[in-house]
Amino acid sequence: MTVADASATLSPLEAASRARRMAEYPRQSTVPPVATPLPVAATKWPLPKPPARRRRLFRRFLTVAGQLLGLLAGGLVAYVRSLPPEWRRRQRFLRWVATLAEYGLDPALAPLPFAAQFRCRLERLGPTYIKLGQIMAVREDMLPHAITDELKHLFDEAPAVAFPVIRALIEAELGRPLAELFQSVEEQSLGSASLAQVHRAFTRTGQSVVIKVLKPGVRETVLADLKLLSGLGRVVGPLMPQYEIMAIIEEFRDYTVRELDLTVEADNGDLFSAQFHDTPAIVFPTMYREFSTASVLTMEFLDGFKPGAPATFALDEAQRLQVVNLGAEAILRMLYQHGFFHADLHAGNLLILPGPTLRVGFIDLGMVGRFEEQTRRLLLYYYHALVNGDVEKAAQHLCAIARPGPGGSDLAGFRRSVVELSRRFLLRVARGQFSIARLILESMRLGGRHRMYFRVDLVLMVKALVTFEGVGRMVDPDLDVVAVSRTHIERIFRAQFQPARMSRELWRHGPELLDLVGRLPELLAQSGRQIEGSTPSAAATHPLVGLRSAIVAAACILGGVLILAQTDAWLTGSGLLLAGG
Q1: Number of domains in the chain
Q2: Cα–Cα dist 364/218, whole Å
Q3: 458 with 313, same domain?
Q4: Same domain, 520 and 487
Q5: Which terminal CB of the chain, N or C, has fewer other CB atoms within 10 Å?
Q6: Are both 478 and 550 inside the same structural domain?
Q7: Are strands 359-362 and 282-283 parallel, antiparallel or unpaired?
Q8: Domain final residue pick, 151, 186, 206
Q9: How far is C-alpha 460 from the geometric centre of its chain's CA atoms?
Q10: Of 353, 379, 350, 352, whose CA–CA distance to 365 is shortest?
Q11: What tens-digit pLDDT sequence spans the chain (581 residues)?
Q12: How far does the chain reach from its first CA to its final CA, in angstroms?
């Protein structure tokens, strides 16, 4: 119907009204005006699509949130089930909520205890959360035992990526066809974990190597998960301050980000090899930098067998003792001499290498721990005191390593508890049931009770010691942990006090020593004036009492060490050391 046809159907009154409106508001031209383009910033429609990275992050957030809500519902159901029957009957509202929540749970998870549900949901969330669970499993000083015991069953295994995808990734990373790089590459992977998988290969020169390849998309997934975890930690952390959730997440981030760059593992391997260059029987794989990038790592293939293999039991007694001593020397030197250690030690990462000379090899070097120099020394003194039965001194060193938790701590109570625990453990030595690793772990657990906590590096140290004891007893069921430990720790302990080493340390701190010597007269004068100005009773407890003699003693020791290190005047140097002592 046209406009004219519509007008013809109007009554005379309606037609007059319409004519009046048209006169007041003239009809505009049917030709649309030329639109003036708006600035880009002012354009609102259509809305731009969010970047792909944000979309992935949002989808990942929904996945994680779904698992978290499921875990909370499962925790509520498990809690109600754990209540005594008479309490459960009283909690009618709680029972009703738990019944409602159970309908939304996965039937496979609903009957499980909370700790088992937690482990299963971490496995479903993938590599980042499996790694997080493994870190949480060793934090027995912070988390409930039921959780840590269950998380020890987390296995970092995943289906292997198809070889054509791996081939394309290697060629893209190294910039050449695989046939030009290697003589052959086995399509069947030797092992596949959540982050990477490994394939055996031979170089063009015939060397047997292993190629470790970061799985496609893993780096992006892990980095997105780390962002989500940080946000979650900031929300949940203040609600449960006793567990220091943000501290665990930050420690986890540091370790995980390093594992996403395979050049870091290559650096670790080179550093381990350099530190043990004087012990050819302790082996780390050689890294092939020309065939390596951040996503591909090529390293030497160590041809050996694992400690639990049948070949281990074919070794004679002397060979088994040699394996135990090599493993003990390697682990104790890593921890207490170098302060740089393999942080993912277990029987699968250790190899016994047969040959004319029996050797021990370490693989999978992506996760390492580091101690600052002061921490390393305190740990050395602590371990030395333990294997020699000095529980008071051991407790003193452990307290110096621990840090107070939020809201204050009970240092004196922690020290008393550690001394008592150590004495009880040492009684088991005669019965052959003594475990140094278990004693250290139980001591750290006591820390949580007294609000004293330890860095994750220290807990990973205990994991290394547990591996030493477990693998050692696998090879030699009659292993005397204390005797073997004492042999190696005494050597490391004595090396700390060799004059040449002490001289190097003093020269390293030369600027601070020169500053102290220059200010020595001023410090002595100030301390004397402050003590003389104090009342007799106050002077007896003044913090500067004894400072003068302490400085003089330190100067004697310093001079004695320098004389012993730089000259042949042993009599003079020894006299100064005795005077300082």
Answers
A1: 3
A2: 18
A3: yes
A4: no
A5: N
A6: no
A7: parallel
A8: 151
A9: 7
A10: 350
A11: 444 444 444 555 455 555 554 554 444 444 444 444 434 444 444 444 455 667 777 777 777 777 777 777 766 667 666 666 665 555 655 555 556 555 556 777 777 888 888 888 888 888 888 888 887 887 776 778 888 888 887 766 778 999 999 999 999 999 999 999 999 999 999 988 888 999 999 999 999 999 999 999 889 888 888 888 888 888 877 777 766 778 778 888 888 888 899 999 999 999 999 999 999 999 999 999 999 999 999 999 999 999 888 898 889 889 999 999 999 999 999 999 999 999 888 888 899 999 889 999 999 999 899 999 999 999 999 999 998 989 999 999 999 999 887 767 888 999 999 999 988 888 776 555 668 888 888 898 888 788 888 888 888 898 888 888 888 888 888 888 888 999 999 999 988 877 776 667 666 666 766 676 667 677 667 766 665 665 554 444 444 445 555 555 555 655 555 555 555 554 455 554 454 45
A12: 115
Looking at residue 295, its amino acid is: S
DSSP β-bridge partners for residue 71: none
The answer to whether the beta carbons of residues 386 and 439 sit under 8 Å apart is: yes
Give the span between the Cα atoms of 577 and 557, in whole angstroms: 5
| Residue at token pair 């020397």 | 329
Q: Residue 300 and residue 208: Cα distance in Å, rounded?
A: 6
My answer on whether 436 and 392 are in the same domain is: yes
Where do we find the tokens 């090879």? 475
